[in-house]
Amino acid sequence: MLIFTIRRLLLAIPTLLFISFIIFLVVTLAPSDPTANLPLTIPPEVKQKIRESLGLGQPLPVRYFKWLWQFVYIEPAHYLNQAFGFSIDTGQRILSWQTRSPVMDIISQRMPQTLWVVGTSYVVAILIAVPIGVISAYKQYSWFDQIGTFISMIGFSVPTFFTGVLLIVIFSVHLGWFPSIYDTTHSVTDWDSFVVQVKQMIMPTFVLALANAAQLSRFMRASMLDNLSQDYVRTARAKGLQEKTVLLVHVLRNSMIPVITVIALGIPNIFGSAIITEQVFKVNGIGQLLIIAIQGGDVPTVQTITFIFAILIVLFNLLADILYGVFDPRIRYD
Amino acid sequence: MAVGTVRSSKVSAELENAAPVLSVENLETVFLTSEGAVHAVNGVSFSLQPGELLGIVGESGSGKSVTMMSLLKLLPMPPAEIRSGTVGFDGKDLLQVDQQELRAIRGGDIGFIFQDPMTSLNPVFTVGFQIMEPLRMHLGLNKANARKRAAELLELVGIPSASQRLRDYPHQFSGGMRQRVMIAIALACDPKVLIADEATTALDVTVQAQIIELIKDLREKLGMAIIWITHDLGVVAGIADRVAVMYGGQIVEYASVAELYDDPRHPYTKALLQTLPRHEGDRMERLVSIPGQAPNLSGPLQACPFAPRCESAHDRCRQENPPLFEVSPVQKSRCWLEDQEVVNA
User: Distance between CA B245 and CA B72 in Å, rounded?
Assistant: First the structure.
């Protein structure tokens, strides 16, 4: 397993290099101008100077390798220096064109917001989806299954920007129960501030959890149904085991194998899908940062965030494969 | 069949007199489908004496497996429904006892072996875990004792270096070895009755012979009664005391093994015996098959279900389903040809 993991990690390097180059090309060749948002009173010559100072005059390969060097050497070296007091020689860090501050610092400021909302929603989604899937499959075509199917269909087909706004209209505007805007400056210090934090998290978490749980519960249900008709289930019953044991030990363990893969593969996706929900609830997380950067033509920021998403996708693919091997003894990678 | 002469019919007659360990009366099971009820089991009655090996023979779809699954309510209900009957075991009717009592009997007093050892074991748990489960559940053994007993069981069914193999997963065993594991699970709690549902069908012939030898051996050692379900009359001849031949969800002939092979009475049994491949004589004979198809059971039986395929069928066969006629104390046949009143008249 260790050799497999190392081999896969090494293989990931050329993949990621290729992805980074594609991202670079797409972002750089897109017709956007970082100075477009500047006031029109600035003369064109000055704007041209600004562009050159941002490095836009250099040839494409130079710009790509500069960024790559910053990402794989300077940034890690900087964090090592900070964490362990090393004094590795570093150069200029990746700077945002909009704020002129290091992109990585902005990302680490934004990350907690995204992780709080998105992470919680994913955990909630799993906690909802697995039991619903199990019960729906066990009581196939019962009223529980029918309602579960109906709700899943809604969660599947109604986009998050609609459910988000709908919830705001109902619970913020009419009922006034929850705030419509997520306040990221709020810090939890005591019970009351914790309640405020929970209140502002409820709606964005629910919207994301509904969308994710809808999908996961369908996977769970299908996988359970596949396994419930297997011969080993009959064997387990013929051994005199309780239904609870048959279902939650024998069938669930087998049914989780494909679902675990789906869950692991879905983790990087939620950062992407959270972009819209973050916009709706004004959570200034990674997704919102990305949108603003795209609008401002902030190439280094867009490039860096997108590449981090790519790394997450590759890593969670690997994690899914490893988990698959852990849960299914028939899969061995050595 | 050489075996016929070895076991005398007297033995079978004696078996009949002891108190049966399992007695099934008039069992009826239907499957409710969108096209109506399929009558899979139509009034099956048989009894099993302590230590007896009863063979149940029939084509696919004759209701053998469904009968056995009905005994322990292992069928998915719905669509299956047990319409009537009693299953006497240990002074109780298994069709009436509550779930808890039924679970205590499943895997405890009655062990089950299924057809396909490749899929009958759970692929994600070690065989040790799967053997230990009934031990801990029914006998209340702790982990260490259950492990010890599981190793003994594996050894009993002839798996070498048993205690190491407990840690292995089913996919690390061959088909025959997996069936041995299944047998170990079924025998875990010293059952009074072992039901083997086509236990050797999915195995190749040499492994099949090994498993049959093992079962014979275990029966001598442990003395449990066995119900051996198969579609292979040849297999049954070698091991059974009595044989029930099933067709169309009912027992059409029920006899001691000697009588069945020496003097088969029901036309279906005769036809089945003729289909057995022979290897006497110089040249291989053509394989014989029974013309026609297994009966359509979508509706209660109105006539003899074998009549459309029967060479000796007459008008009465197509109008009335025959009862089980007693030919001799050890042989019964469900055929109008046995009706003495008609013969005498």
Answer: 21
